[in-house]
Amino acid sequence: MIASHGHTVFHEPELHFTTQIGNGAQIAAITKIDTITDFRQADVANGGHGAPFAPVADRDLFSGYDGYLNLGGIVNISIHLPNQTWKAWDIGPCNQALNFLAGKKGLSFDAEGTLASSGKIIPEVVSQLKKYFPPTSGNAFSLSNATVQKTWLDTLEHSQVNVQDLLACTTEAIVQLIIDHIAAVRETPAKILVTGGGAHNSFLLQQLNANGKNHSFSFEKPADLLIDFKESLLMAYLGYLSFYNKPFGIHSVTGAAHDSVGGVYHKAIR
């Protein structure tokens, strides 16, 4: 079967809706393969944020770590606490902001953080960015693209600081937010697996490990193949759980009233 997440165009769980475009019936008709879509709707219907879903795969497919950090358009984390419980939440913007700034230099992204590493960190700018997303103590929280636009992107768009310095400041804000959020829920050392497109940003990873030393947090980058395809593995696993009517088991991190079986099944005509 095909497990297709689709592209999120609206995500406002506080208003009880989330929308991922991508027509599962059309995919099934074209490919002649049964297709599962709409993984988040059931969780939102039960009072959850419909995110984060990464803990489903982190817990079952990638053992051996205390935490799992995803550096995507938005940075999110799932982390194992000493009392044997899991917490997972969105921390704040990541690649959305970095790529927005790189675009002002005519680039799709700042490869390996090269431009950011050449910039100067301005503490006032870092503080201004951080104030939008203080630590949540691990409470369920999902961040919409609209909120990123209204906060960081709007602030960066109206800044008079040059692009290199803004990239340096934004990278520093991302790093500090990550460390602050983890430290708010975990005081013991932690080995954390880092995936998502931002894991290819060597400067960002370097700054994460440098800042994490004070808390004995280490951030480990896996093989590029895992970085590039981890979300595909997650969606395939969600498809498996949905097909066999197994709950995703993450209501404690999404804030839903109880676990649900997500996904809508589209039968193909062969």
How much strand?
15-25%
Helix count equals 11
Order of helices and strands: EEEHEHHEEEHHHHHEHEHHE
How many domains, as an integer?
A: 2
Proportion of residues in helical segments: 40-55%
The top-level CATH class of the largest domain is Alpha Beta
CATH level-4 homologous superfamily of the largest domain = ATPase, nucleotide binding domain
CATH architecture title of the largest domain: 2-Layer Sandwich
Q: Which parts are unreliable, with pLDDT below 50 for 5 consecutive residues or more? A: none
Count every beta strand, where a strand is a DSSP E run of 2 or more residues.
10
Q: Rough shape?
A: globular
Main beta sheet: strand number and arrangement?
5 strands, mixed
Q: Order of strands side by side in the largest beta sheet?
A: 7-6-5-8-9
Tell me the CATH topology of the largest domain.
Answer: Nucleotidyltransferase, domain 5
Q: Rg, please? A: 19 Å
Structural class comes to alpha/beta
Query: Mean pLDDT, nearest integer?
Result: 92
First CA to last CA: what distance?
13 Å
Q: Any key phrases for this structure?
A:
270 residues; alpha/beta; Nucleotidyltransferase, domain 5; 2 domains; 5-stranded mixed β-sheet; 10 strands; 41% helix
